[in-house]
Design a protein that fits this description.
Blueprint lengths: L4 H13 L1 E2 L5 H11 L10 H9 L5 H8 L4 E11 L4 H5 L7 E13 L4 E13 L12 E6 L8
Antiparallel strand pairs: 1-2, 2-3, 3-4, 4-5
């Protein structure tokens, strides 16, 4: 991992939106995303939120199984990003502690099956906990949350 919260946010956003039914199960994809998510000691970012927000990307266990029969995959690429005070909502309500960063990443996403292709842009807001936060590792940042639900994206 990295101490650069912008690099972490970009990589996490791409990982959240990218999957391939031809080489992974839903459990594999979920485990990969789960490995990015660091639960805070106060429990303010439970794994239930991870599941809810991951499903807001348009994929869940049932749809993944259905798409597997179509050889489906999704590729996300970075387009742009705004972080911290570049976001109006963060200026209005600053992060509650030093070292917590919020970035909204805009992705170009391509959903592909054997018979069709669909391209669109998608925003995802990623929260990174970095030093000097007491709950952050001393040498790197950790993702402590993301929002993919339209109503929760931070602009």
């Amino acid at each position: 991992m990295t101490a650069d919260y912008r690099a972490l946010a970009s990589a996490a956003a791409v990982a959240i939106y990218s999957w391939d039914t031809r080489s992974s199960s839903y459990s594999d994809v979920y485990a990969r995303i789960r490995n990015w998510w660091a639960v805070l000691p106060d429990g303010s970012n439970p794994l239930a939120v991870l599941v809810q927000e991951f499903e807001a990307t348009g994929i869940n266990a049932g749809s993944f199984a259905s798409l597997a029969g179509q050889g489906a995959y999704r590729v996300a690429t970075f387009e742009s990003m705004a972080c911290d005070n570049e976001l109006v909502k963060v200026r209005e309500r600053p992060a509650p502690w030093e070292g917590l960063h919020v970035c909204t990443v805009r992705l170009k996403v391509v959903d592909q099956t054997v018979s069709s292709s669909n391209s669109y842009t998608a925003p995802v807001s990623v929260m990174a906990n970095c030093p000097p936060a007491a709950t952050a590792p001393p040498d790197r940042c950790q993702m402590v949350g993301f929002y993919a639900s339209t109503s929760r994206i931070v602009y």
